[in-house]
């Protein structure tokens, strides 16, 4: 009997293997042969589906971004769609908290994406700049921040661009630090700073750092 392939399923298996290899070794040190071996498919099939290594890497980044958007929209989609979010202090505060909580949990649930991000940062984003897919998070949050600043929700001494920078990058060192401390002294961390409390304290840092004090 002739063997049939489920193209969608095959692509997912290849992306899973690529994600693992890129996370462990970075883009430059990862070989398509190794990804093919891990996925259990011929290298020519990878080229057929993704074109080349950069196309495969783009597929991994695109899938991660789309999954992250799905997680965030399930938690805070209503806030983004509500035009009053950037003029209502309580709604804006809730949005900031939802972004931090969902980002933190996403990185905990998908540690490979955190590793890929760190490889990119270490290599000064040179691969990221060349991929054909660009996540639009920073644009979305920049526009929200500009509107919130105009409506007096963001502190007068804070530039709007600081909002997307904080929301997108502050979570990463906190996730790393919590893991490192948990491995070095698990009893102390678990007894003094439970994970949920740790996340909520990060939310407080962002909210109190960005928002106009009189509104808190």
Overview of the structural elements:
Helix 5 packs across helix 9 and helix 7 crosses helix 8. Helices cover 74% and strands 0% of the residues. It is globular, with a radius of gyration of 20 Å. The protein contains 11 helices and no strands. The protein has 216 residues and is mainly α. The chain starts with 6 loop residues before the first helix and ends in a 6-residue tail after the last helix.
Protein traits:
single chain, 74% helix, 216 residues, mainly alpha, 11 helices, globular
Silhouette: globular
Mean pLDDT: 86
The profile of the biggest β sheet is: none
**Helical proportion?**
over 70%
What fraction of residues sit in β-strands? under 5%
Q: What's the number of extended β-strand segments? A: 0
Order of helices and strands: HHHHHHHHHHH
Helical element count? 11
Distance between the termini: 68 Å
Radius of gyration: 20 Å
Oligomer: single chain
Structural class: mainly alpha
List unreliable stretches of 5+ residues: none
